[in-house]
Design brief:
By secondary structure, this protein is mostly helical. Helices cover about 80% and strands about 0% of the residues. It has a domain at about 60-200: Orthogonal Bundle (Tetracycline Repressor, domain 2).
């Protein structure tokens, strides 16, 4: 086996072990010592290929959001039907991907609910493609509809992004209380979908007096 191939296999072995550790315990609870003990790795081997715990964590985050983004880009290309149905299908695809990839679910939950202090910029860079895709899907949905007079698509999208920042901050506390990443993520995605539906269609029924 060539040295390049051996290095690639060793690097991938470390990344796989780190992904499992970070997914199960989050950034704060994860330990490279545990990774070494459970996977038969030495710290020397880890630090030969990776600078530190932060680099390993960020690579796991990058892979999670890259693979999720790839799945959702394919979903977005095939969205059909009324706007409301397209929105539902998009959110369903998000949850379905995470259910199919439980290790990614742990990473995604950690990033959304309890992002490590001091890694904000790096995490934002890792998930940029995912965030841009969400904006693109919302923008396309709005472009297919007639907005109220005086509203612009760019303004609606920006307001929604600001609202989601507040919404996710609220869920940090919920996550810490409930202790179940899967349950908290399910509720988060369902409520996120509902809030977007309210943003688009309001809260009043069609039979209310005008």
């Amino acid at each position: 086996m060539k040295r390049e191939e051996k290095n690639a296999l060793s690097r991938q072995r470390i990344l796989d072990a780190a992904l499992e550790e970070f997914s199960q315990k989050g950034y704060e609870g994860a330990s490279l010592t545990t990774v070494c003990a459970q996977k038969g790795l030495s710290k020397g081997m880890i630090y030969h290929y990776f600078k530190d715990k932060d680099q390993l964590y960020l690579l796991c985050v990058e892979k999670c959001f890259h693979d999720l983004g790839e799945r959702l880009r394919n979903t977005a290309k095939n969205l059909q039907g009324p706007a409301r149905q397209r929105l539902q299908d998009y959110f369903d695809a998000r949850l379905r991907f995470l259910a199919d990839h439980p290790l990614y679910m742990g990473i995604f939950s950690d990033v959304v609910f309890r992002p490590p202090v001091g890694l904000d910029r790096e995490i934002a860079a890792c998930r940029r493609g995912f965030d841009e895709l969400n904006v693109a899907v919302l923008t396309q949905l709005l472009e297919s509809q007639t907005l109220r007079e005086g509203l612009q698509i760019s303004v609606v999208v920006e307001d929604f992004r600001l609202y989601m920042d507040y919404f996710n901050a609220h869920y940090h506390a919920i996550y810490s209380r409930e202790g179940s990443g899967e349950d908290a993520l399910q509720k988060h995605e369902e409520r996120c979908h509902r809030q977007l539906d309210i943003l688009l269609y309001g809260v009043l029924g069609e039979n209310n007096a005008k």
